[in-house]
Structures are given as C-alpha cells and as structure tokens.
Design brief:
The protein is built from four helices and eight strands; from the N terminus they run H-E-E-E-H-E-E-H-E-H-E-E. It is of the alpha/beta class. The strands form two sheets. The protein has a six-stranded mixed β-sheet with strand order 3-1-5-4-7-8, sandwiched between helices. Strands 2-6 form a two-stranded antiparallel sheet. The two termini are about 30 Å apart.
C-alpha cells in the first residue's frame, strides 16, 4: 500500500472522493420548532452552519459558524446525522458533500434574546414547526432537517443519510435499529 511520501515521489493513488464538508446545528424553541435562517448570499432558507475550513473539525466548524452567524455560543450537543449529498450542477458549488448536523438543543429565552444576526450572512431567522420546513427549505435540505430532528428523539447516537434519506431505509418511517 503506498504511503503519502511514496505517492508524492511518483506513485499514484486510486481515484477517491474529495467531498466538501459542511456542519450545522438544529436549535429548537419551547414549542419544539426548529430554527431556520435566511442567508443573504443565496436564495432560500437553511440551518445555522457553514463550510468546514482546512484543518478544522466539523464540530469546531459548527461552533464557529453558529457564533459568526447568530452572535451566540450556546452549547452544541451530539452529532445527529451525517448526510452524503452530491451538489447539483447549479453553477455555485458542484461536487460531493458531507454534511454534519449537530444537536443545538433547546434555546432558552435568554439565548434567543441574545441572537444578533451577522447581516453580511443572514437577513432573517424564524422558528418553524418541523412539519412545515418543506415550505422554506429546498427538498434535500428539508429531508435532512426532518431526518435529523427525528433522530434527535431516539436512543440512536447518530444516523447516516444519503440525499437526506436514512440508510439503511426503514420500511415504516421509523428509525431503523442497528443489529447487535
């Protein structure tokens, strides 16, 4: 098996994916509505988060992006889901992506009152019932947010998604349990 030094001295690696990585958090209010944000740099809504920078972990990126976008540093909890989702050829960003969704938990009144949007990145935010996120998010994002929110309420530590759908797929809409 070639090492990095062997490859840099003339050996070659087999083709491999080089996905972009992004991380975000699901925050909820007292009514279990999820926090969505409206970016200034692209159409539609999203969850707080953004791209992972070189040398940065997905968790650290999530914490950094939440602070940059919302102006707050609430505790970020466990990983809820990882979603593999190639980007469509839309002229903005093309290629494979790995998206990490963490549990931001319930934002208390104190945290919600301290939100200060970075107006260079976000123009609005709203808490939306989970069954209504499809009206604001593109279909892929809506599937990802809905699946991650559903996983939040289970004993499962994290879920794997492809295009926002749980894998392996469950047949009854419930989270598929792992074989032991």
């Amino acid at each position: 098996m070639p090492t990095v030094s062997e490859a840099s001295s003339g050996g070659t690696f087999p083709p491999m994916a080089r996905p972009f990585a992004a991380a975000g958090a699901l925050f909820f209010d007292d009514q279990q509505r999820v926090l969505l944000v409206e970016p200034s740099y692209k159409p539609g809504w999203d969850i707080p988060g953004g791209f992972v920078e070189p040398g940065e972990s997905p968790y650290a990126a999530c914490v950094r992006e939440v602070e940059e976008e919302l102006g707050i540093t609430p505790p970020i909890g466990e990983l809820l889901a990882v979603d593999w989702a190639p980007r469509p050829h839309d002229g903005w960003l093309e290629g494979e992506m790995l998206l990490f969704v963490f549990d931001g938990g319930r934002l208390t009144d104190d945290w919600r009152e301290r939100i200060q949007l970075d107006m260079d990145e976000l123009v609005n935010f709203a808490f939306v019932p989970i069954d209504e996120v499809g009206a604001l998010l593109p279909p892929l994002h809506a599937r990802r947010v809905t699946a991650a929110a559903r996983l939040r309420g289970t004993s499962r530590r994290a879920g794997y998604l492809e295009y926002g759908a749980e894998r392996p797929a469950s047949t009854d809409g419930a989270v598929t349990s792992r074989a032991r």
